[in-house]
Structures are given as C-alpha cells and as structure tokens.
C-alpha cells in the first residue's frame, strides 16, 4: 500500500538553448542538359535557401562561408552520349578545383539512364566554391539533378 503523493518540488533552472544546426541550408535543382567530360553539372534552380553561409555562385557553383563544415548530398540521372560498350557516367563534388574524396559516383551507361548519388562532409578554408561535375572524359546527359547543403554547427 502506498501513501499520499507529496508536493511537487521547485522547477530547476532552464539550460541554454542548443544551436540551430539547420539555420543555414540550401537545396537546388538542375535542368536537363548535356555536359562535356570535366564540365559543371548545372543546378541553377534554388528551391530553398536559409541563412547567409550558403549562396548561389557563378557557372553552376555554390559559394560557402569560409572555415565552416557542411553536409552535402547530391543525386542525378545520367546517360552517356555514346553507346560504346562499357562507357561510363559519373558525378562528383569539387571544392574549387579539387575532387572531394569519396564523393564520386560511377556507373556503366552504354546509352542507358543511370542514377548517381553521393554525399560528403566538407570543411572549407579560403577555397569556398562547391560544384557538381562530370569528372570523366565521356560526354553525358544529366537530368533530375538535386543538391542539398547544410552548414553544421
């Protein structure tokens, strides 16, 4: 058997508010088009942009704030413009002129549409231009391209 419930004690001090980890985010969508080997895969249609740490750049790039860390995800459909056996399609993230390690996605196309996707955590220094590119020498048609960038706290 239990007794009566006692009075509720005093409420403690409220702790500090945690940082908003999604205050700076960016989502863009690309238009279908042919991209030469080594060329930029355009993602010009900004669907969502919050904060000032991520902004549209020039020539299909995205400008990031310096000395920050970001989570980046992309997805695209690609079809090689050649039907040569074992021709491949690829997409990869670049920070400036440097390939972001581990972000490359490759598939054998032979003229068929393939889904390519990748993600990375990147940290900027003074190089702040992020881009999605066709890193292989094969020309390809890209469509349904999207990229999401979130500044991490």
Outline the low-pLDDT stretches. none
Order of SSEs, N→C? EEEEEEEEEEEE
The percent range for helix content is under 10%
CATH class, please?
Mainly Beta
Average pLDDT value? Answer: 90
Q: State the secondary-structure class.
A: mainly beta
CATH arch. level architecture:
Sandwich
CATH topological fold name? Jelly Rolls
Q: Count the strands?
A: 12
Protein name: BclA C-terminal domain-containing protein
Task: Please provide a written account of the structure.
This protein has 153 residues and is mainly beta. The protein contains no helices and twelve strands. The strands form two sheets. Strands 1, 2, 3, 6, 10 and 12 form a six-stranded antiparallel sheet that branches. β7 (88-95) and β8 (98-99) form a beta hairpin. The radius of gyration is 22 Å and the shape is elongated. It comes from Paenibacillus medicaginis. This is BclA C-terminal domain-containing protein.
């Amino acid at each position: 058997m239990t007794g009566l419930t006692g009075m509720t004690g005093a409420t403690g001090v409220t702790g500090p508010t945690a940082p908003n980890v999604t205050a700076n985010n960016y989502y863009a969508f690309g238009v279908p088009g042919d991209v030469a080997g080594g060329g930029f895969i355009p993602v010009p249609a900004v669907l969502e942009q919050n904060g000032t740490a991520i902004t549209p750049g020039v020539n299909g790039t995205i400008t990031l704030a310096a000395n920050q860390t970001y989570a980046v995800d992309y997805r695209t459909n690609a079809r090689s413009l050649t039907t040569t056996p074992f021709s491949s399609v690829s997409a990869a993230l670049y920070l400036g002129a440097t390939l972001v390690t581990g972000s490359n996605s490759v598939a054998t196309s032979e003229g068929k549409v393939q889904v390519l996707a990748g993600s990375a955590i990147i940290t900027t220094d003074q190089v702040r231009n992020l881009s999605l590119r066709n890193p292989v020498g094969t020309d390809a048609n890209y469509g349904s391209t999207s990229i999401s960038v979130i500044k991490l706290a």
